[in-house]
Amino acid sequence: MYPKKLGILTPFSSAIALTTANAKFNYRITTTSRGFGGTIDTFATHTYDAANPGFDVTGGVSGLPLYADLNGGTIPVNYNKANLVANGTTGLLLLHHSNAFGAHDQILGLQEPTATTVTVDAASGVYSDPTTLNATVSPATYLDQTISGNVQFSVDGSPVGGPVAVNSSGVATTSYTVNVGAGSHTITAAFTSTNAAFLNSSNTGILTVSREDATVTPANANPFAVKVNAPGGTGGPITLCFDMNEVSDGSPGDTSNITSVSVNVIPIGSGSSVSAGAAIFSGGGVGATRTACVTMSNVPVNVYDVHLTINGNFYQGSGDTVLVVYDPSLGFVAGGGSIIHNGYRANIGVNMKYLKNGNPQGSLLYIEHRPTGDVVFKSNALGALAIVGNEADPTGKGTLNGIGNHSFIARIIDNGEPGTSDRFGLRVTSPAGIILVDLTFDPIQLSGGNFSVPKLTGK
Ligand SMILES: [Ca+2]
Ligand SMILES: [Ca+2]
Ligand SMILES: [Ca+2]
Question: Which of these, 113, 170, 320, 452, has the minimum number of CB atoms within 10 Å of its CB?
């Protein structure tokens, strides 16, 4: 070494008997003084493998690694972790030939890239609707470096879109339209670094999915009132269908995921439930109507509330319709139909007869299909039943969406067959005796169905 100019003696490998196959040697640096005599400084024996360097700065040059020492210049450094460990390398020594005295040498310490950790936020969503997946990679900064790279999200192993870049805080966010059913699912966020100072990592989180809402509406083709097959007998087979549609939200799912429904056929008065049999499904698809049909046989005379509930992990919803089975031989006021009231479709079922003692027996069911849900009025006790000409006016008590002690008067007007001119009117009063104006209306012509009001003598 020299005060002004810097020099270094580098023996050729061959001069110290190193070959490519045998390039490993031990070395030790000892400083001695001619003036004072003896050793000034020494350090422990080190090992170096010239054929397998931890750092290799020969990229781009042949012979000795010399680079123009200009501001802003770069020196390519190849890095081999295994060799680096084997050699015990702790850094790079840069020698600046033409620097001022005292600034000839510079030690660049070794800094390994940092491990990273991904944190996946818990997410929740509804089948078919968008939700947000969020992951944070940390640390976002290391030494003088800021994280960069991409996160690939997946749900239960299926990729969600393409890789998403992390921002300077290490956060990656993506929108996911939920296409898995209700329950707990695994979100995976795999970070791939594009900055060598940060290592890759991956982690998981939980996505909780709930069912999408669907409406259930009785099909227009359903019969309202079915006559028994023979006097004193039962009705059937009777097929009832329900249309199931996702509640519109701009992000429709696949309604063919509805593969199970429960259908209950329950008399609104006394009597036994009827088995609906297995549902047959048709239609369905993305944004399409799914239809379920059930067929009932040997159905006794009565007014039935037919209730469908959607099962499964993808949709939830339920709806009702009315089914009347009547026997003309019993002396009856019977029938069923639909009207449009206040713009909403409503189904009506009625089946009443006089007992031998002159008292009426039977029931009335009125279901109005409002966007906020069905409004269901069921009679549970009949009072007087007035029949005047072609009009029957039953009175009595009933429940409104399950709340009892409401009163009603209905007007059932039979204008002959097939029923297209028949009419239905209703008045419902609350337990406190207040008329419920939204369930009180003058007779409205049926849009489907038929009533039969025989010219009874009352006996
Ligand atoms: Ca949806
Ligand atoms: Ca929705
Ligand atoms: Ca009629």
Answer: 113
3-class state of residue 328 by DSSP: helix
In sequence order, which residues have a C-beta less than 8 Å from that of residue 357 and are 6 or more positions away? none
In the chain, what are the domain boundaries? 13-109, 117-210, 213-452
Neighbours of 341 (CB within 10 A): 20
- What contacts 251, CB < 8 A, 6 or more positions away? 128, 129, 130, 177
Starting from the CA of residue 317, give the closest ligand.
Answer: 2
Residue 61 has pLDDT above 80, yes or no: no
Cα-to-centroid distance, 90 and ligand 1 (Å):
59
Distance CA 325, CA 456 (A): 19
Ion ligand 3 neighbours, Cβ < 5 Å: 414, 419, 422, 450-451
Q: Which residues contact 308 (CB under 8 A, 6 or more apart)?
A: 216, 242, 261, 262, 263, 292, 318, 319, 320
Question: Distance from the CA of 247 to the center of ligand 1, in angstroms?
Answer: 7
87-109: average pLDDT: 79
Cis amide bond preceding 328, omega within 30: no
Return the bridge partners of 254, or none.
286
Q: What is the pLDDT of residues 22-52, one digit of tens each?
A: 888 888 888 888 777 788 888 888 888 888 8
Residue 171 corresponds to which tokens in the numbers above?
């956060």
Measured in Å, residue 350 CA sits from the centre of ligand 3 at 13
Distance 412 CA to ligand 3 centre (A): 10
Alpha carbons within 13 A on the beta-carbon side of 23: 13
**Helices within 77-206 (DSSP H only):** 81-87
> How far apart (Å, rounded) are the C-alpha atoms in residues 321 and 306?
5
Which CATH architecture fits 117-210? Sandwich (2.60)
pLDDT at 12: 63
Alpha-carbon distance of 190 to 163, in angstroms, equals: 9
Which ligand has an atom closest to residue 253 CA?
A: 1
Among the bound ligands, name the one nearest to the CA of residue 225. Answer: 3
Tell me the two tokens of residue 325: 């089975």
